[in-house]
Amino acid sequence: MATSDSWVQDSVTCDLCDNPTQQFCNSCQVSLCDTCVKKHREDFSSLSHDIVPFLDRKIQLVCPECKHHPGQRCKANCLQCSVPVCFKCVISGPHEKHNLEELTKTHEKRTQRIAVDTDKIKFELIPKYQGKNITYESSVSETHTHFVDLLNKSKKLRQLWHQEVDNIFDKIDSISQSHRKENLNVLHTYHNKIKKLIFEMNKIVEQNEKLLKSKNFSEVNKYNSKLKEFRDFLHNVDLKLPSFNSKIEQGKELSIEFGDYRAILNQMLQTSLFADFPPCISRIWEQIDKVRVTTTISTEYKPLLGVACVGEAEAWIFGENQTITRIDIHGIVKNTVTNRGKTGLSGISVTRERELMQCDRDRRTVNIVRNGMPEICFTTPEDWSPKRLCCSRSGEIFVHVCKFNIRAKYTNKIIRYQGQSIQQEICNDRHGNLIFKDGSDSLFITENNNEDICVSDTNANTVVVVDKWGRVQYSYDGISAKKKGLFHPRGIVTDVLSNIIVADINNECLHILDHNGLFLRCIDDCKLEKPFALSVDSDWRLWVGFSNSRKIRVIEYLKNE
């Protein structure tokens, strides 16, 4: 019966052939059959070989042959040269007097290092890379899905934009067909009348020529002249031929005019004021049925007179104590700016570069805050004090200024500034009447996407909208909202849909109008106690400040696909 050792020996084959092993070279750590022992000695004839029966084998380190002394095995490692060396190399060779280390010890250190590296690779790096592999597999899928969604939205936007253009030209075609039909009807009617009169005149000429030859007094005496009738009929037909004009302002707008019909396509340029919002309109927004308060922020201001959002999660706010505070959506104070005087702070806004601007009513200055200090940007005209302001997307500044008049009231107007230069004054309509009512209360200002200037006239309790040339487009008095109390507008903003949102302090709600002034809805279910200040962040959430509390409510009322 075979022993376990003999069974192991039979199961191990010779390293040089496929026969069972009988011998073992301790020097080279090679299993050999009886036939291959001679071949092994001949292949490495320069070295000594310790051949023993396989069962008497000794597992040990295989020392390499010295490159400089054939027949000698290296037993040590030169620490200075980091190479294996034999006895002769040490006695009289190039490694004489070098520090040495037993080759077995060097081998042990190297195997320990290999074991450490192997464990780190096996138990640290491979799991980490496997995790990254899963993450990137997911990222590949998500990225693919993201760009598929972008492509679908791009196609949808392409359809919407093309539809808008088609609607414009369908309208033009409809108007053109209507005018064509109207003008052709006039021409056909006139033409038929002329042909009829020509026939009648030829008939009269024929009759008159007979009368000229007649000697019958009665027939001649019956003649009635129609010459005046024929002469009076000839006149030019009044045709309505509309002109067709188009205009392209690079980077601004495309406009087309067809008679009294005028259409404009605006190119909306996103500025750093809305840097968190994707360029163009990569998302399609719509109002949600159920609005919700996402956050309620506690502040130190009561009343809270102004809010100006910075990006998606911060805002500048101020009250009556001449300080302006920058807070985040959690109410944490980020910065504080103090007005130079004890009074005078009346309005704030944020530029497209996200810099704070403020009105100093007493000094008649509009300031920009840099390095925590107000710097004078410009001074308003003599006797005109700044109260509220709005920074436009194009970098211009709209400022509400007021002046004490001879009627012991304040006259109000809006000045458009480009840098320090006055570009426009908005105060009178085309009939010369005042656009804004006399009074000491503020005009809250915002700019819409179509460059309309939307004004909450708190003296007249009306929202007035003028175009970029200062021409009154429409006004809103709150009646269509059908609220019990009178409409008392305060803060005003516009959103990504070009809708106008205005705070109604008396009815404790927010009115939402479309860009044509049509009432859409009211937000009145968010505990809006005397809403006064209003701003919108880059995620199109409303920040509402109140006159009778220290709270700000952040309201979500839009969603995107």
TrEMBL record:
The protein's name in its UniProt record: Uncharacterized protein LOC111116817
Transmembrane segments: none
GO molecular function terms noted in the UniProt entry: ubiquitin protein ligase activity; zinc ion binding
Record flagged with keyword Metal-binding: yes
Keywords: Metal-binding, Zinc, Zinc-finger
Residue ranges annotated for the B box-type domain, each copy included: 9-54, 66-103
Gene name in the database record: LOC111116817
Organism: Crassostrea virginica (Eastern oyster)
SUPFAM superfamilies membership: B-box zinc-binding domain, NHL repeat
